[in-house]
From TrEMBL:
InterPro entries: DUF1826. It comes from Endobacter medicaginis. This is DUF1826 domain-containing protein. It holds the Pfam family DUF1826.
Length: 216
């Protein structure tokens, strides 16, 4: 089932869309006003304990969409399951088609604390996020882009009434439009790393960005 979410007072333009099929990601290109698309996937039985044991780490590489995942795998602090590498490669190929970019920037992080705990928007056109382990990225159904994010209080208890953070599930694939998406003025998706709530909250987070100005 595909679920759309609308901003208050904007019944004709959906802010986000989520569904169980890959096709939902193509909505970002077809619908200019859309800020977030989520491909809701079931978690896969991939053993990530060995990679989590290497946290914290952050590995980022750039390269052609067809080969950059191999370079990322080689740069990791330890061996990664083949199924994980295969999934990241598939997502890189999908992102390349969606963005029209042949060169991508991939980042895989093993986190033991919140990476970006404050709500913000990205200074990119389009970003893919997938949390393979641990709590997922949190986002708000709120317009206004960067200025609106900067005005938000740090304490969730002080957020405006009715404004509740949504959380992506593990293995969900999210496409977030940023401040550089053409024609989307102050419309970037407002999001943050999940707030730590104590206990074991290690995360493995995968990110893909296009390399701006390097399209063929």
């Amino acid at each position: 089932m595909v679920v759309e979410q609308f901003l208050p007072g904007c019944p004709d333009a959906a802010f986000s869309i989520a569904g169980p099929d890959l096709d939902v990601l193509w909505s970002t290109a077809r619908r200019p006003a859309l800020s977030l698309a989520v491909w809701c996937r079931r978690p896969r039985p991939v053993e990530l304990a060995a990679l989590l044991d290497q946290a914290p780490f952050c590995v980022a590489v750039e390269g052609h969409a067809t080969t950059v995942t191999t370079r990322l795998a080689a740069a990791l602090p330890g061996p990664a399951p083949g199924a994980l590498i295969e999934d990241m490669h598939g997502l890189a190929m999908v992102f390349g088609l969606l963005s029209g970019s042949t060169r991508l920037r991939l980042r895989l992080e093993g986190l033991i604390e919140a990476g970006c705990p404050r709500f913000h928007t990205d200074q990119v056109a389009l970003r893919l996020l997938c949390t393979y382990a641990g709590p997922g990225t949190e986002w708000l159904a709120l317009g206004g882009g960067g200025p609106a994010a900067a005005a938000l209080p740090q304490d969730d208890a002080e957020l405006p009434a009715g404004l509740v953070p949504h959380t992506l599930a593990p293995w969900d694939v999210a496409l977030l439009k940023g401040e550089r998406w053409p024609g989307l003025t102050q419309g970037g998706c407002i999001h943050r790393s999940p707030r730590q709530r104590g206990g074991d909250e290690q995360r493995i987070v995968f990110c893909i960005d296009e390399i701006m100005g390097d399209q063929e």
